[in-house]
Amino acid sequence: MKRASPExxxxxxxxxxxxxxLKEEMANVSGETTGKxxxxxxxxxxxxxxxKEHPHNVNRGDEVAIADSIRANGFYRxxxxxxxxxFVLAGNHSFRVGVRDFGLKEFPVIWFDxxxxxxxxxxxxxxxxxxLASYDEEALLAELKSLASLEGTGFDxxxxxxxxEKFRVPPVPEEPPPTKTQFxxxxxxCGHQFS
Length: 195
Prior knowledge:
Order of helices and strands: HEHEEHEHHHEE
CATH superfamily of the largest domain: Conserved hypothetical protein from pyrococcus furiosus pfu- 392566-001, ParB domain
Number of strands: 6
Structural class: alpha+beta
Number of helices: 6
Radius of gyration: 29 Å
CATH architecture of the largest domain: Alpha-Beta Complex
CATH topology of the largest domain: Conserved hypothetical protein from pyrococcus furiosus pfu- 392566-001, ParB domain
Largest sheet: 4 strands, mixed
Helix content: 25-40%
Shape: elongated
Number of domains: 2
């Protein structure tokens, strides 16, 4: 099983934030840092005994798709965990599948050090914002077709076909040749019709 590196792409979140021009003086991730990335958001590996599924997670994740992704790609996503409770705020189903299906004993974690109200909002926002997302289907189709295999993507050949159908232009029906308009006259006395 592949392990996530302790940093994202060789740079921790703080250095990524600096590259984007955010202020150097960012506080720790907490309720007071709305809209900011905290200094202490570096990922670390944490044993399963310190992590628990959140009892208020209302999302029903597709655990089969998650397992397929982990099988194909390894466990590449950090969990966001509230340090004071050990509850997972983002990644509950990945955590469950990792333990149950793959026997993982530790996970990449980013700790959240804020209050309970903010933690519950993060739990809800993580699920809701994902559900509100949509696809640029033309770009998605190009991306899916660029892969040698769809394994671990959550997409299959039927999905590709459905997207292709949306972009398929139906053939324009040929118009029948124009017919010559005939005028029919009817004799008012006998009812005989002639053209």
